[in-house]
Amino acid sequence: MTEPAPHMTPEQFRQHGHEVVDWIADYWSRIESFPVRSQVSPGEVRAALPPAAPERGEPVSAILADLDRVVLPGLTHWQHPGFFGYFPANTSGPSVLGDLVSAGLGVQGMSWVTSPAATELEQHVMDWFADLLGLPAAFRSTGAGGGVIQDSSSGANLVALLAALHRASRGGTVRHGVEPDRATVYVSAETHSSMEKAVRIAGLGSDAVRIVEVDENLAMRPEALAARLERDVARGYTPVLVCATVGTTSTTAVDPLAQLGPICQRYGVWLHVDAAYAGVSAVVPELRPLQDGVEWADSYTTDAHKWLLTGFDATLFWVADRAALTGALGILPEYLRNAVTDAGTVVDYRDWQIELGRRFRALKLWFVVRWYGAEGLRAHIRGHVALAQELAAWAEADERFDVVMPHPLSLVCLRPRWADGVDADVATMTLLERLDDGGQVFLTHTTVNGSAVLRVAIGSPATTRAHVERLWALLRENHDWLATDFAAAAAEREAARAAAAAVLQGPAPS
Q1: How far apart are the C-alpha atoms of 243 and 195, rounded to whole Å?
Q2: Is the pTM of this model over 0.90?
Q3: Distance of alpha carbon 357 from alpha carbon 218, whole angstroms
Q4: pLDDT band with cut points at 50, 70 and 90 for residue 378
Q5: For residue 313, is the peptide bond before it cis, meaning its omega torsion is within 30 degrees of 0?
Q6: Tens of pLDDT along 387-400?
Q7: Which of 47, 214, 270, 303 has the lowest CB atom count within 10 Å?
Q8: Domain of life of the organism in this record (predicted)?
Q9: How far apart are CA 418 and CA 481, in angstroms?
């Protein structure tokens, strides 16, 4: 007779749980000793793993040892205070503890009846955050709209598009699918690529995307949007959705919601606001003007898992009218029927997302807001914005760098200056490689008006003014080293050309 698998007992879990928490706490305390970006070569992590799964179970101590030996060298440390690369992927002690409780409870919150607290806590926390961010009353669960925690803003962009298609077709897409040759979606060149991916997934195809021109600050031009909408309507197309961005990924450009909103209403187009990175900044009242006009939005997304101390995945997504969302995504097989669902007295979040199943994500968000309070969340955002403004001021006062584009939040884009005759893009990318290879900091790049620039995204909870000062020193030191190297190479080339010219001229006459 086969013996059942030896499950971890509650007492064993208690013992090993302490070991794991200790390991995480030790990791946080020593994170600055690691190079920010992983330095392994492709295939190196897999080569350190056994070719086959273990036949017999192993102790937790062996697993933790391999975390140190195999996993840590293969990580880029997103919580490192020298991480200035992509937008942050914050986590925090309260978030990890909330996730641990969620994992321990192991509930599946797809419907109200499958765990009422999982739904109602989420509704309540989302209403809290609608208040904290100053979002319109239509987004509260007490009205026609409401909020839900999605897996990512990419997923939120997709469900917003599906809801918009449902509304534009008056429910027709549920019955016969989309009309890919008639529906149109409006973005700018700065809109996140996930919206075009959503268009593809929804079955419209990339030809449905209209790219609206931007102004000198890379914000969508309202008059250009109006002209495109007018032209498409005249040609028989059905405009479905406009995606406006608050804080683009490349440069944190901000589309003018207050001007775009009335245009969308005039043409009956769904206005979706993608504020994945920047939206949470609205917990700070003085930063809310960046989102003036948000009351025009039909849907809105921002990521608590980027800049608000909550571990991935925790995308906050609201709609002003949930009927379009649930109309697009709701489906009720017999085995999910129950009295409260049939009565329509509860929210079943399975109808607000792509997936059927859902984790109890609201717990970690609840832990975070309970631990920090609104005051602590505001201080977190304000601190990073202040550091970014200080860095920008240093760069503006330095002849070696230009600050590119407005920087109202915690991203600063820098264009290094190089001598005439130096390929500026090659030099800038070489500077980036030197910085990232050094291990103390990690930056990324983008292009603005066709030129390479460095992105400095401040957002790690552990980053202090000292870390930003160190980054600034590294930028200047490496710039100077490269500039000297380029000058020496240019002098060598000039000397070689002069010598070659002298040989061609021959010896001087005696």
Answers
A1: 8
A2: yes
A3: 39
A4: very high
A5: yes
A6: 999 999 999 999 99
A7: 47
A8: Bacteria
A9: 12
Q: Which CATH number fits domain 108-360: 3.30.1360.130, 3.40.640.10, 3.40.50.720, 3.30.450.20?
A: 3.40.640.10
- For 147-169, letters b (16+ CB in 10 Å) and e give bbbbbbbbbbbbbbbbbbbbbbb
Task: State the helix-helix crossing angle for 362-396 and 93-105, rounded to 10 degrees.
Answer: 150
pLDDT band at 498 (very low <50, low <70, confident <90, very high): confident
- The residues, ordered by sequence, that sit 6+ positions from 311 with a Cβ below 8 Å of its Cβ are 89, 90, 91, 92, 95, 96, 99, 305, 364
Give the burial class of 470: count Cβ atoms within 10 A of its Cβ; 0-12 exposed, 13-18 middle, 19 or more buried.
middle
Beta-bridge partner residues of 299:
272, 319
Residue 41's pLDDT band, with cuts at 50, 70 and 90, is very high
Convert the pLDDT of each residue in 239-296 to its tens digit: 999 999 999 999 999 999 999 999 999 999 999 999 999 999 999 999 999 999 999 9
CA–CA dist 106, 90 (Å, integer): 23
Whole-angstrom distance, CA of residue 290 vs CA of residue 496: 56
Q: Where are the alpha helices (DSSP H) in 76-192?
A: 93-105, 116-132, 153-168, 172-176
CA distance 246 to 291: 7
In angstroms, the CA 279 to CA 300 distance is: 9
- Identify the pLDDT of residue 224: 98
CATH superfamily of domain region 374-497: Aspartate Aminotransferase, domain 1 (3.90.1150.10)
Coil/strand/helix, residue 141: coil
* Tokens of residue 33, six digits: 């000793």
Give strand pairing partners of 148: 317
β-pair partners for 280 = none
Pairing, β 411-416 against β 444-448: unpaired
Query: What is the SS3 assignment for 418?
Result: coil
Query: What fold, for 10-77?
Result: dopa decarboxylase, N-terminal domain (1.20.1340)
Task: Please give the helix or strand (H or E) that residue 63 lies within, else none.
Answer: helix 60-66
Contact (Cβ atoms closer than 8 angstroms) between residue 183 and residue 238 = yes
Contact (Cβ atoms closer than 8 angstroms) between residue 149 and residue 394 = no
Which contiguous run of DSSP H or E holds residue 498?
helix 465-505
What residue segments make up the domains of the chain, in order of their start? 10-77, 108-360, 374-497
CA 421 to chain centre: 37
Q: Are 248 and 193 in contact (CB under 8 A)?
A: no
How many CA atoms within 13 Å lie on the side-chain side of 234?
6
